[in-house]
Structures are given as structure tokens and as C-alpha cells.
Amino acid sequence: MSDVLPERWSQASVYPDMWADPDEDPRNSDGVSPDGELATLHDFLANYRLTLKMKCEGLDPEQMARRSVPPSTMSLLGLLRHLAEVERDWRNWIRPDGPAPKLYGARDADFAGAVAEQAVVDSAYADLAREQAATDEALAEHPDLGERVGKDGIAVRELWVHRIEEYARHCGHADLLRECIDGRVGQ
Q1: What integer is the mean pLDDT of 91-117?
Q2: Does the chain have fewer CB atoms within 10 Å around its N or its C terminus?
Q3: Would the pTM of this model clear 0.90, i.e. be above it?
Q4: Which Pfam families match (predicted)?
């Protein structure tokens, strides 16, 4: 991290502590909330996924790979890689056979391997999109949230809630990481 602290700023003009003005925020919807539990879970997950992408917008590979504070290896790029790994891991819970191999290797390799190279950034985005789609597809086969799946009989609802919880927690980290990079604040 640099010794120079960035000045806090926002693109928003209505509320200076928001990421974007409400009228321009793609996460906002003018309609009513979704009907039903599954639709609500879909909506929350989609919004957190979009929030993470927004926190990474406009950054170069060095900024994406910039670590938080020692000894942490956390970075925005590491978060993208970690969440790709998480999507695969949650999908492993419903696989009838053994778990799919790790994407990036041993423990914490998702963060440790987040280096400031455009190819690594591009790969992280591609990995995340692929793993999200695969997990979404696997869970679409189980629309009953009370259904028990996999060898441990985990409820589908629990898989959904844990995925949302993981994204929510890491979007909080992304807020702080982004603010340290260029001072941009966000809700």
C-alpha cells in the first residue's frame, strides 16, 4: 500500500457517500420486490454479484492486485478469484461424485496468485463468470428450497443463503479495498 492516502470521492451527486446516484444505479429497480423466496434469493445474489463488478470497474491490473494491509493477501483481484473458487465449492456440495479440483491450487492460492497482470485479471473474470453460470445451472435443477442434496443432505436453501452471505461479506471488503485504491466510496 502507498503511504499517500487517496481523497474520498464519489460519482454520485445526490448522495456523496453513494457509489452511484439512485437513478443511475443498475442495482436499483423501480418495480416491486420479487414474488417468492427463490426469486428473492436470485435477486439478492444478482445484486451482490453486480456490486462486486462495480467495485472493480475502471481499475488497472496493479490496482486490482493491490493488497489491503499486511499480512493480509486480500485484493479485489483476489476476491474475484476467491468467489470463483467459492462458487465451485458450493457446487461441490451437490455433486454426486467427489469434489471438482480447486481452480487455483492449495489454500489461499486464490489470493496469493492475484498478481498484477492483465492476463490474470481477464482469467479471473472469465473463471468467475463460468463458475457462477455452472452453479446457477446446477441449482436450477433443484427449485425446491427444502430439498436435501448431495452426500451430506444439505438443504438447497442453505446453499443459496451461504452464497449470498459470502458475496455480501466480500462486497464489504471490496468497499474498503476500493476506497484505499482511489478514495471512491460506495454504499
Answers
A1: 88
A2: N
A3: no
A4: MST
